[in-house]
Amino acid sequence: MKSLLLTIVLISFSFLSPMGVTAQESEKVWNGHKCAVVLTYDDALNVHLDNVVPALDAADINGTFYVPCNALPLIERMDEWREIARNGHELGNHTIFHPCDGSLAGREWVSADQDLSTYSFFRLMEEIRVGNAMLKAIDGKEHRTFAYTCGDKSVEDSSFVEAISKWFPAARDVMFRIEHQDEVNPMEVGSFFVMNNTGEELIAQVEKARMEGGLLVFLFHGVGGEHALNVSLEAHNKLVEYLQTNKEYIWVAPLVEVADYF
């Protein structure tokens, strides 16, 4: 009888995790959800305020907007950026002048004044540090994430990733990968680069992340225009609608919140 009782107890515990969580619950590793999605938007465009924010707000979803501090839509519409930050959207650091390495192939469009290959390490660090101060003056916050401009992570032939890790809980990369909690490097979070994708294609990426139980970060520029790297407003909004409908399974939050979680 004792042997039978012991067997029943052991079988019962086999269905529990070490913390007493059922197998089904243990799959919900992202703040009680099966996967996480972060919507990020680069370069502080007018369409972000005019097209993106209304769609996100209507779906009760918050995103991350990576803001170069010299962007005219930021300077000319600062009160609106301050308002969206107040409403839960993240204003992320994207430097002041958005420098990119002009020495790389296909980078002929980089101006001499914004050529990262001519920057000193000190100059870039100051630009990022002052960018944080400028964003704090807008949203009153000290805690935010960073996005590498053009995905460049080196200056004067040295990586600056470790140097900025003391200022940010996470930084978004441009290399695509679905992240998993036991593998993610917070300072090089992968992302899906969106350009001319259909709504169905974007949703398919989310479904993949959901099946894998991972984190998917979308990288948008233009949404309905204003940038050569563009996606239609229809495709964007179809994704947003899908995320809203599936909130039970998909955690959608700004990168700063997800980074604090993992």
UniProtKB/TrEMBL annotation:
This is Chitooligosaccharide deacetylase. The keyword Transferase does not apply. Residues 1-23 form the signal peptide. Pfam families: Polysacc_deac_1. One of its GO terms (biological process) is carbohydrate metabolic process. Keywords: Signal. GO terms for molecular function: hydrolase activity, acting on carbon-nitrogen (but not peptide) bonds. Residues 34-154 form the NodB homology domain. InterPro entries: Glyco_hydro/deAcase_b/a-brl (IPR011330), NODB_dom (IPR002509), Polysacch_Deacetylase (IPR051398).
